[in-house]
């Protein structure tokens, strides 16, 4: 009888995941609640690629705080590819590059933390990162323990050199490894949308990239000689406008690090930033803060736009209409309010002539509705920071090529 009780208890425990040998599989689930609004910060890749170093990162952290970016909400400093040496050490540990980071990674992380900021690193699920540094495949638990010991707050986990493994399993393993290591770390999934992470990654990650890499242009496709493409920001928005029901608090569709302040003009940068806010995308700046113009800073710190991005409802916007290159994008936000962005996708100036009374906006995925025949909203132009009447009157405005007009509609 005693033996029978033991066997029954053992079977039940194994099923419930209490068995010792199985703890890795059972660790399960991301750290919840770390990104209830889209995370905001800076990532090194778009400007610096692998040319990163301690001095530049410290200067970036300094400027993030002194320029007002932190006050506006940006608080993650994330080092992308290129922070390691080309080989692990004799114990299989990752080694931060001592030439790029002469005072050590611990020192840099302390420096960033002392400024009240958070710190992130990058690696890949494959055998090597995209730039040829040691990947995590086969070292998941060891690397997660290392990140926890270093005290990082964010891990971007990429998808190069992953032949023969499946994305869902690989990301689940790393998510479990982070959980087991015990330090709450935002897990940023980056497999470029190739395996539809929005369908399976919510229990594992806090955000997932939805496309290949961004390119600093409005609507172009940049074809790399090695047979892959990078995408202008509107290409990414268009590509992933229909997976909005999968995005929300703590599980965001990530439209990639921004190119604001890089190669586009201020009008296009303003539209780029606006669309990232409309799509409730994570907001990672990808520019060199040390060379930032006041126009770029003003775009990145527009408080009203950031409030749209950070709205607690966490709903990704959608395209309401498009006619002759003039598009209307809408986003439901808290308290029954809405944001409407007119976007001139064309190369010529256009006139906006929007008679609210003729429109009924329905959000088929989340069930919100704006019935202008029944309800009157006040209008505020968020880029002009100006009240502009209400939905009782036809809204008219000029709109330059590639520009936006963004209105907040309040009850
Ligand atoms: C991939 C990612 C980029 C960047 C590079 C680094 O291309 O999509 O965001 O991390 O790798 O090598």
TrEMBL record:
The keyword Hydrolase applies. Its EC number is 3.2.1.22. GO terms for molecular function: hydrolase activity. It catalyses: Hydrolysis of terminal, non-reducing alpha-D-galactose residues in alpha-D-galactosides, including galactose oligosaccharides, galactomannans and galactolipids. Residues 324-409 form the Alpha galactosidase C-terminal domain. It holds the Pfam family Melibiase_C. Coiled coil: none annotated. The keyword Phosphoprotein does not apply. It comes from the Bacteria. Keywords: Disulfide bond, Glycosidase, Hydrolase, Signal. PROSITE patterns: ALPHA_GALACTOSIDASE. InterPro entries: Aldolase_TIM, GH, Glyco_hydro_27, Glyco_hydro_27/36_CS, Glyco_hydro_b, Melibiase_C. Belongs to the glycosyl hydrolase 27 family. This is Alpha-galactosidase. It comes from Flavobacterium frigidarium.
């Amino acid at each position: 009888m005693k033996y029978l009780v033991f066997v029954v208890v053992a079977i039940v425990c194994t099923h419930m995941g209490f068995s010792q040998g199985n703890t890795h599989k059972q660790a399960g689930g991301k750290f919840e609640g770390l990104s209830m609004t889209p995370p905001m910060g800076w990532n090194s890749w778009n400007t610096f690629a692998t040319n990163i170093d301690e001095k530049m990162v410290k200067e970036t952290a300094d400027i993030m705080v002194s320029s007002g970016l932190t006050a506006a909400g940006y608080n993650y400093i994330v080092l992308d590819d290129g922070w390691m040496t080309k080989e692990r050490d004799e114990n299989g540990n990752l080694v931060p590059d001592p030439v790029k980071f002469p005072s050590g990674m611990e020192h840099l992380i302390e420096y960033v933390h002392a400024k009240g900021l958070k710190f992130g690193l990058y690696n890949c699920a494959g055998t090597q990162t995209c730039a040829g540094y040691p990947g995590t495949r086969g070292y998941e638990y060891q690397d997660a323990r290392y990140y926890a010991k270093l005290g990082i707050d964010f891990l971007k986990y990429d998808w190069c050199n992953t032949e023969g493994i499946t994305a869902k399993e690989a990301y689940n393993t790393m998510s479990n490894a982070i959980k087991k290591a015990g330090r709450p770390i935002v897990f940023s999934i980056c497999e470029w949308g190739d395996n539809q992470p929005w369908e399976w990654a919510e229990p594992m990650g806090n955000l997932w990239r939805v496309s290949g890499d961004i390119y600093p242009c409005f609507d172009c496709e940049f074809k790399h000689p090695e047979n892959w493409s990078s995408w202008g920001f509107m290409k990414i928005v268009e590509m992933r406008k229909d997976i909005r029901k999968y995005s929300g608090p703590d599980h965001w569709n990530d439209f990639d690090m921004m190119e604001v302040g890089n190669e586009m003009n201020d009008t296009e940068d303003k539209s780029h930033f606006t669309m990232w806010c409309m799509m409730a995308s994570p907001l990672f700046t990808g520019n060199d803060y040390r060379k930032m113009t006041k126009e770029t800073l003003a775009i990145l710190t527009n408080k009203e736009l950031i409030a749209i991005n950070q709205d607690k409802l966490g709903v990704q916007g959608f395209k309401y209409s498009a006619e002759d290159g003039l598009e209307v994008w809408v986003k439901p936000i808290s308290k029954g309010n809405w944001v409407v962005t007119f976007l001139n996708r064309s190369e010529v100036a256009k006139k906006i002539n929007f008679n609210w009374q003729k429109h009924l906006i329905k959000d088929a995925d989340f069930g919100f509705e704006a019935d202008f025949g029944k309800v009157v909203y006040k209008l505020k132009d968020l880029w002009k920071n100006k009240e502009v009447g209400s939905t009782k009157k036809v809204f008219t405005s000029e709109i330059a090529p590639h520009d936006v007009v963004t209105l907040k509609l309040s009850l």
